[in-house]
TrEMBL record:
It is an enzyme of class 3 (hydrolase). The keyword Repeat does not apply. It catalyses: a sn-glycero-3-phosphodiester + H2O = an alcohol + sn-glycerol 3-phosphate + H(+). Belongs to the glycerophosphoryl diester phosphodiesterase family. This is glycerophosphodiester phosphodiesterase. It comes from Haematococcus lacustris (Green alga).
Amino acid sequence: MALFPDKVRTYMVDGQNVTDIFSVDLTLAEVRSLRAKQPLPALRPTMYDDHFQVVTLEEYLQIALNAPRTVGIYPENKHPTFHNRRPVS
């Protein structure tokens, strides 16, 4: 939580109060400042940690559209009940 200490919030997630930094509170610029990191280092290689920006859905779509073959995109929302309760702006 050191990167964005002013963004620490408590939300109800799956019936539990969770205090953390949530993606819904970050701007795109803040997300773009992050780098991808392997969350399971015991199971997968970490040689590419911190080398790549977090990819946006728009960038994934461009990769798929520019691929030399048919590519499917299957977006997944990790906590749909949490996100469904968020106000639409």
